[in-house]
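hey m, so remember when u said the tokens were messed up on ur end? i reran from scratch. heres the input so u can diff it against urs
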Amino acid sequence: MVDVKRVKLPGVGVLHTFVTHDGGKCGVITHRSGQSDLITFSEAGDGADATKVSLRLDEDEAHTLAELLGGTRITESLSSLEQIPGLSIDWFTVDYDDHIAGQPLGDLGARGVVGLTVVAVVRGDAANPAPSPDFKVFPGDTLVVAGTPEKVAKAFAFWRTGEIRQKAAADAAPGG
């Protein structure tokens, strides 16, 4: 685990720093204005070859960078889960013309899609884990789902069109 040091900068904001594995130093100055500075630096005693790099980011850019850096760890974790046979984890981004846009998630089990879980709905910078069936979905939301590849495809088709694909004769349960 990386040791992060936090220092208040009066009149400016907060500085978070950590030392990298190779001895470099990295920090983020979070300004009270919402802007952030991503910096790398060396201690004054590190010699004449010490360098400093600073990059100013607005609030959206800082969030994007955080998502990219944090998303790598999440993606790696999900990739290991996806190696479980029969499990598919996927993301469905809601468009304006999708059937689900402006509608509650509903109960897919009641519509015949059993064995699929909506793990979370991501809206902007916030995740809504384990949303209830009455959770309203809007364009731009991303639904994180887990289930068999067939169930995931069936749910995606329903969310796009509002229609549940009926089982083919070969997929039908015995005696049904």
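this time it looks ok to me. DSSP finds two helices and nine strands in the chain. if urs says something different then somethings off w ur setup not the seq
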